[in-house]
Amino acid sequence: MVEPLLTTRGLSRGFGALKACDGVDIDIRAGEIHALIGPNGAGKSTFVKLVSGEIAPDSGSIHLLGKPVGTLPMTARAGMGMARSFQVSALAPSMTGLEHVVLALLQHRGGVFHFFRPIARDTGLKARAEEILARVGMLDRATIPVAGLSHGERRQLEIAIALALEPRVLLLDEPMAGMGAEGSARLAALLNELRGDMGILLIEHDMETVFALADRISVMVGGQIVATGNAGEIRSNATVQSAYLGDAP
Ligand SMILES: Nc1ncnc2c1ncn2[C@@H]1O[C@H](COP(=O)(O)OP(=O)(O)OP(=O)(O)O)[C@@H](O)[C@H]1O
């Protein structure tokens, strides 16, 4: 069997007496969208924070492309092939989308700034940044400062920045939150296309989107994974039905 891109085993983290993440085993395989669903407070965001390195686990392991990530910081994990859209949500209002993506490319390539040559005139970098912006449907908005972009466009830009890191594993914590129907549909189409190049962990509350997009779904309740399977298996799982799903599609 092909080794998963990302593996967690027994991943745990408490806050005081609360076990927010309690022995979580999840695999993200190449080419899959793996959705993580569960009620509010189930521990989904805590799991993403543990995997991305924003917070440290109390116990358990994380392997990325077969290598233990241990206590490596977020930047080192990014260098190993992990990107998280949420980690870059601090967009600079006065900078354009193009500038953000160029900077992310420079960061990824370990580039240095040439003070005597504006980076936007580096044609190779600019062309690559435009290619990425086109992929997320933002090329025609590339030169508008972030302050002038809609919420949905900012989320698209965050994904473009994540893609500049050429991730093998992409972690998306509620990427569709606050987006209108059109923006959500566009983003769903993008994720559908991206899965061919990477493994995607998707936290999403909209069950219609999850069941339409995900190859596999893990259900988290009270910090624990209570079921993992494809859409049909999750829909018909009795534990999931009673613990969370109710009569969702
Ligand atoms: N820094 C923290 N300090 C204390 N408790 C925390 C902290 N972060 C999360 N928690 C608690 O851990 C539990 C899991 O929270 P988490 O945000 O991971 O859930 P979630 O599944 O992402 O929820 P939601 O769907 O509402 O975003 C919650 O009870 C939350 O209050």
From TrEMBL:
Protein's UniProt keywords contain Phosphoprotein: no
All residue ranges annotated as the ABC transporter domain in the record: 6-247
One GO cellular component, as annotated: plasma membrane
Domain of life (superkingdom): Bacteria
CDD domains xrefs: ABC_Mj1267_LivG_branched (cd03219)
Molecular-function GO term, any one: ATP binding
PROSITE patterns from the UniProt entry: ABC_TRANSPORTER_2
Signal peptide feature range: none
InterPro entries found in the cross-reference section: AAA+_ATPase, ABC_AA/LPS_Transport, ABC_transporter-like_ATP-bd, P-loop_NTPase
Keyword annotations: ATP-binding, Nucleotide-binding, Transport
Pfam families: ABC_tran
Name of this chain's protein: ABC transporter ATP-binding protein
Organism this protein belongs to: Pseudohoeflea suaedae
